[in-house]
Amino acid sequence: MNIVITQDYEEMSMQSAKFVAENLLKDSKKISIGLATGSTPTGMYDILVPIINLGIFNERVFFYNIDEYCNIDLNKNGTCKKYLLDNFYSKVSINAKNIYFLDEFNYKNYDNVISDFGGFDVLILGIGKNGHIAYNEPGTSFNSLTHIQELSVESKMQHEVDFGSIDNVPEKAVTIGIKTIMNSKCILLMASGKEKAKIIKKSLKGEIDKQVPASVLQLHPNLHVVLDKEAASLL
Ligand code: GLP
Fold first, then answer.
1. Alpha-carbon span 117 to 31, nearest angstrom
2. Alpha helices in the chain (DSSP H)
3. Domains of the chain
């Protein structure tokens, strides 16, 4: 595991974008990238937009979201689709056929689509305060593939601001599984802020335990972690 500790959110975003860009430039083959949503990667997407718009990768980069809420109009605020459209896809000049949206209706085929690439080339992850990655909540099997997941109260509270109130947060989400995550060739885990410090310590230095989903990442052979100094403060 390679851990980079940065001064602040801006530097975390810059270092993360640099890592993704280096992977894009590594060779000229097709590349698949799994994209996290949430407040953490927004700054990184801003930095990646002009890099993608250089136009040198357009046809060979494929983007995938990694989770999505169920039972909700996906054009509404708070959904992963809307987040990615607003923060990334609407700003980059890429072919629509290179963007794949996961939802509750197409998820059964998602692992096949991803495994056609031999797993994600780069998977970008944030982390929930309870250790969830994508939307794999505590207790999820390390053997899980893409599935529907009941959301924990903690996760719903973490995202109530995205939906206006906790009552508007959907009860369920569809998410790539832990096995899907671990099949990625390379994983970038990002975290910022002191409210992530405890779970970052537990996940990266604690016991590997399905009650802390992110702890499984310790077993990944190619994990790159970028933290700001607050998120890294207990390491
Ligand atoms: C949500 C998303 C995850 C994300 C996590 C962290 O649950 N589904 O993909 O990593 O939140 O969110 P934030 O970056 O806002 O803390």
1. 8
2. 9-25, 42-52, 80-84, 110-115, 153-158, 160-163, 178-182, 197-205
3. 2-228 (3.40.50.1360)
What residues does 188 pair with on adjacent strands?
124, 224
Burial 183-209 (b: 16+ CB within 10 A, else e): bbbbbbbbbbbeebbebbebbbebeee
> What span, in angstroms and rounded, lies between the C-alpha atoms of 129 and 147?
21
Distance 38 CA to ligand 1 centre (A): 4
- pTM value is 0.96
Catalytic residue positions, numbered: 67, 130, 132, 137
pLDDT tens readout for residues 22-62 = 998 887 788 999 999 999 999 999 999 999 998 877 689 99
Taking phi over 0 as left and psi of -120 to 50 as alpha, with beta for the rest, 104 belongs to alpha
Structure tokens at 56: 């040198």
Q: Are strands 172-175 and 147-150 parallel, antiparallel or unpaired?
A: antiparallel
Is the distance from CB of 141 to CB of 210 less than 8 angstroms?
yes
Q: For residue 194, what are its two tokens?
A: 């002191």
The preferred substitution site among 135, 153, 155, 195 for testing ligand 1, maximizing ligand atoms within 8 Å of CB, is 135
Is ligand 1 within 6 A of the CB of residue 128?
A: yes
Residue 4 has a pLDDT of: 98
| Alpha-carbon distances, residue 91 vs 16, 51, 53, 203 (angstroms) | 19, 11, 9, 33
Output the six-digit token pair for 18: 């640099």
Instruction: Compute the distance from residue 129 Cα to the ligand 1 centre, in Å.
Output: 9
